[in-house]
Amino acid sequence: MRILFHHPLHPLSRVARVMLAEKGLPFEPVIEKPWERREEFLTLTPAGEPPVLVEDDGTVVAGGLALIEYLEEAYPDVALMPREVALRAEVRRVASWFLQKFDREVTENLVGEKLIKRLSGQGHPYAPAIRAGLANIQYHLEYIAFLSERRPWLAGPAFTVADIAAAVQLSCLDYIDNVPWDKNPEAKDWYARIKSRPSFRALLADSIPGCPPPKHYADLDF
What we know:
Number of helices: 8
Number of domains: 2
CATH class of the largest domain: Mainly Alpha
Structural class: alpha+beta
């Protein structure tokens, strides 16, 4: 069986898990703590970052963005990217917004400071970063609301990688109870649609020892 090396609260790892589930591809999840710099893991990816997929035939696909493209091209029967060139470009734009801009402005400042530092023993949270993350998330939630009010899904008429990218970021923030859902009902309604998909169930079952999620985290009705 294929193996996915991942970390539960690593957004690109979560994208890979959801994509594999959406495409009906069974896999064995192996939790990787990148800060440990395991030699065996570094032989698979010199970058030392999850996710890394190892196929049954030994093929290794390392790096989240590369893995997104690989899964879509290697297993096209369940498409998570549209065929039309212009729509594909829009999916990539929206996905990049959340995998790069949101990650830098929100997830790293909140999940990184509040939880990853604690798990990896990298010191105390940096208060200015946390304040920045809490301020920035509102802007991004408003952007989700803006898109979801104008389209069936964030990047167009169909559920795509763009929706997965945004949802996994929010799921990481929701794990530490840092999403102001009460102030953003449109974003909450959109996320509830994603949260109820079968492909999201494994993410909602995540629980890191010593750092459990809030009670509403796995509740489909919040």
